[in-house]
Amino acid sequence: MSKPLYKVSFLNHGKVYELYARRVASGSLWGFVEVAELVFDVHDGLVVDPTEERLRAEFGDTRVLHLPMQAVLRVEEVERKGQSAIRDAVSGERVVTPFPLPAKPR
Q: In the chain, what are the helix, strand and coil shares in percent, each to the nearest 5?
């Protein structure tokens, strides 16, 4: 039997983050939820999803994420991993990281 997989949605700086993790528990720090063993897609070569890369850059070296209880919106046990996302908290639309363009010549 494989380890359970959880989709965790939480508020962070006015945005809703959706991450996948193998372990979610009530934290040893009072009022916090521990999210550990974060799961990211493994892509070799071409970057397929810039949001996934942004989340991996922000949380890739994180062993345990301690989230304030009131910031956690939802924890779901899921069968398989979907796309991690960053959404606008008000509209619910995905926040798209613009592709960096070269500076305009003067």
A: 10, 40, 45
